[in-house]
Amino acid sequence: MDFLLATNNMKKLAEMQRILAPLGINVVTAKMLGKTLTDVVEDGDTFEANAKIKALAACKEMNMPSIADDSGLCVDYLDGAPGIYSARFSGGHGNDEANNDLLLKKLEGVPTEKRTAYYVCAICCVFPDGRIIEVRGECHGNIGFERDGNEGFGYDPLFIVDGRAFGRYTADEKDKISHRGNALRALKNELEKIL
Prior knowledge:
By secondary structure, this protein is of the alpha/beta class. The protein has 5 helices and 7 strands; from the N terminus they run βαβαβαββββαα.
């Protein structure tokens, strides 16, 4: 069964495929189907609201089960920032280097014990018949003082769990503990009940 993933982020696609494939779900993007999704305005004030906006729009446009996620990093010292603005923290959208630079600048001089943070992933799955599944996953850690590793994307080179930056975790290692891995396992559990 094909499910549409409302993103063109191939790393997110790979994560979803790895975790949902055992259910017989083939996760595809609109681009893989030769289509282009209309851009939607993510004007929700939570990760959950933005995931739902994207999933509803994709399902309506493509008339197939659609999955969308909204995820980001919440730094306690910064009162939860960058939060829902994680991808555009430094102004432009998706500039990982600039976002990481800004985060390091904002945490300059902040000691390790005050650099706690957590990743959030909210996933919404919408079916053409109107059924909606919403799940959330989190992963807690802290922010390092410099980039470490080349794996993953986003803030992974700065996000430390169990003494090691996500930038040094293999995809399989990260799947087991990450916010997206946790949310996808919750989604998988919900899908198992209805498929």
